[in-house]
Amino acid sequence: MPQVLSSAVTIDPSALKSGQKLGPPPGGVVELPGSKSISNRALVLAALAEKPQGTCRVLNLTPSEDIRVMLAALAKLGVDVKYLAEGPDSGLNVELECPEGALALRPDASSASVTTVWVENAGTVARFITPVLAYLVATSKDLSAAVVVDGNERMRVRPVRDLVDCIQRAFEGVKVEYQGNTPGCLPLRITKSRKRSVPDVSEGQASSGFPCGTVEL
Fold this sequence. Notes:
alpha+beta; UDP-n-acetylglucosamine1-carboxyvinyl-transferase, Chain; four-stranded mixed sheet; elongated; 3-phosphoshikimate 1-carboxyvinyltransferase activity; Enolpyruvate transferase domain-containing protein; Enolpyruvate_Tfrase_dom
């Protein structure tokens, strides 16, 4: 019986004559897009590795929305981003420089101590930048330092509870609060706290991106 794969493709085995041999398979090259997850991990590591008056080049990044959002988030933390010429595979090449020598919270224009980081609907940004923000709050000399991590409506229904649990385990003196209408989702508010919360986390249930964000620190 003929099998219809789509309105334009039909496979009919009966069309082959008895003993007829098929020709060689078609050849060609298919270029697969790179990993936005690996690209964003590389950007976070490059930003954390910055030294005074030093630069770090990251080449052949995946040109995607997640990468654009991550670069904007790093810029909010004091990283100067310079776009270089595209690579031979049309990858995105950037040069990162941290004039202040290290990442730092940059409060919003409307607040003296609150830094808001917008992650759109980029899950890789939410998973990898949030632990960095928690670290900056934990090490800040400003006792009123606070960070709000937020995204669009779609991001606000994507669960991040495992990520928050990992952060609470990793950073003593940091408090993470859910401020949205959906439990366990963005927006998050990260502040200093004298208490350490160690919730129960079921092993093997979380995306690798959740613990990886804290391991990178």
